[in-house]
Specification:
Largest sheet of chain A: 8 strands, mixed
Helix content of chain A: 25-40%
CATH architecture of chain B: Orthogonal Bundle
CATH superfamily of chain B: BFD-like [2Fe-2S]-binding domain
Order of helices and strands of chain B: EHEEHHHEH
CATH architecture of the largest domain in chain A: 3-Layer(bba) Sandwich
Number of helices of chain A: 9
CATH superfamily of the largest domain in chain A: FAD/NAD(P)-binding domain
Mean pLDDT of chain B: 92
Structural class of chain A: alpha/beta
Strand order of the largest sheet of chain B: 2-3
CATH topology of chain B: Arc Repressor Mutant, subunit A
Radius of gyration of chain B: 18 Å
CATH class of the largest domain in chain A: Alpha Beta
Number of helices of chain B: 5
Bound molecules: flavin-adenine dinucleotide
Largest sheet of chain B: 2 strands, antiparallel
Number of domains of chain A: 3
CATH topology of the largest domain in chain A: FAD/NAD(P)-binding domain
Strand content of chain A: 25-35%
Oligomer: heterodimer
Low-confidence stretches of chain B: none
Number of strands of chain A: 18
Chain lengths: 379, 110
Amino acid sequence: MSKMTADVIIIGGGVNGCATAYYLAKQGITDVIVLEANKSVGHGGSSRNGGGVRQSGRDMRELPYAMYAVNNMWPTLSEELGVDVEYYQRGNLRLGKTDAHIAKLEGMASKSRELGLNMNVVDAKTVKEICPYLSDEVIGASWCPTDGHANPMLTTLAYYKRALEMGVRFFTDAKVKKLEKVKGKLRKVILESGEVFEGETIIVAAGYESRYIARTVGVDVPLFKYFEEALVTEMQPHMFDIMLGTADADFYGHQAQHGSFVFGSDSGLEDGIDMDIDELKTSSLTVSAGCRAIMGYIPLLANAKIVRTWGGWIDMCHDGVPVISKVDEVPGMILACGFTGHGFGTAPAVGLMLSQMVMGKETVVDISALSYDRFKSVR
Amino acid sequence: MIDIQEKLKEIGPYVEAADDDVLVCRCEEVTKGEIRQAVHAGMFTMEEIRRYLRSGMGLCQGQTCGKLVKGIVARELKVSPLEIEPATSRAPMRPTEMRIMAQDGGGANE
Ligand SMILES: Cc1cc2nc3c(=O)[nH]c(=O)nc-3n(C[C@H](O)[C@H](O)[C@H](O)COP(=O)(O)OP(=O)(O)OC[C@H]3O[C@@H](n4cnc5c(N)ncnc54)[C@H](O)[C@@H]3O)c2cc1C
């Protein structure tokens, strides 16, 4: 076995962990270890998400790096990693059927414009021009032409493959149990199976489980977990390349490069799900509700066959944006968790910024608002 | 715990084989050579292979090629096929139209 110490240890082989490993290696830091609990890299949300590369609807604390990724990273990512990650930048329509929907979309669009993002509300006729396959019940939509989608499984594995080629060491079936400080500085990473790794910098990017891991050195990140489901249809003739969502948020999705439609949806009962984190069981209620929602906006898909359904855990953060931060009380630790269901589209920028934090460089955009100590009592 | 770099060293580099262009997954048109190369790129599990190549993700959901892919991966990794875990099967059991899947009633808003 190779040595068990490294300059940087990354806990979690999701898209954020793999991207960070890659950007570190790219800048010459190849003494990096990634520890993934599962036998498969990308076992978490990173292989289960809807592939949305979205800027619209983002919080102002997140939008700058979501835009940075779209403007500077996604367009050349396939070429850079040597794997086609199926990135399409053809825009995002968020559909409305009622006046209340349109009012909600107007609100979102004007807020985004204030932050410098091109997003407008368009009428039914324009919606039909952008996407002719939608129901006549659609009376308008918000339109963000620079949004898009990519293949999350390929993106995660492409970062992994490239980082491996550059010398990063990955360990799978390597579940972290706890962290330990040595002389006041974070140093040891101890696995459930007993092995001990040591690193100068330790990045915790383990989705919701980051909470358990950080707690072992006294840091509690206010996360909760939410189960989100998705489905995929058999291949369909090519219809459109845009990303779709609705004002009601009852479904979202796109047609993937090989022709299948991938949609995420919910039943509205998710808050009450009481399932162990290792279980990933889908619910027949959700897929059924999802089908009704999808058919209500894209009637042509009524006869499309669903081939698979799946679900994944989302690391929801208390205030809706992630924690990407060093921790004063635990020198050597960097937290990267709480992505709140939209951490795929930002992963290139987050990976780059985490690598910059490790190297003591300034991050490409200011993310001081994502600090771990921002949570204050409201009373 | 699996040390991926060590395992890659142990299995050695990918060497082209005469039957690499044999189609293994017919739904998604994936060849034996593509599967073998993926293993050497670090895709050691059935989940990773299918996510990387789409083998077993088509209409039959791997019912035809699952065993074959497993055999190829095991051979490349120099382990018994019994050591390779199958990929998770997912609902629905058979491809089913949306209009049929939609019929559980719903109704909370009615
Ligand atoms: C159904 C669904 C749809 C989504 N749709 C979108 C979308 O359209 N657009 C978007 O931007 N985002 C979307 N998301 C969110 C997105 O998938 C996540 O924000 C993103 O993948 C987070 O990546 P990550 O690397 O931080 O976490 P993860 O992918 O969860 O990776 C964390 C890894 O850590 C590992 N781990 C856990 N515990 C330990 C431990 N103790 N030791 C070692 N390793 C451990 C896990 O096995 C996992 O592989 C969606 C999520 C879901 C579930």
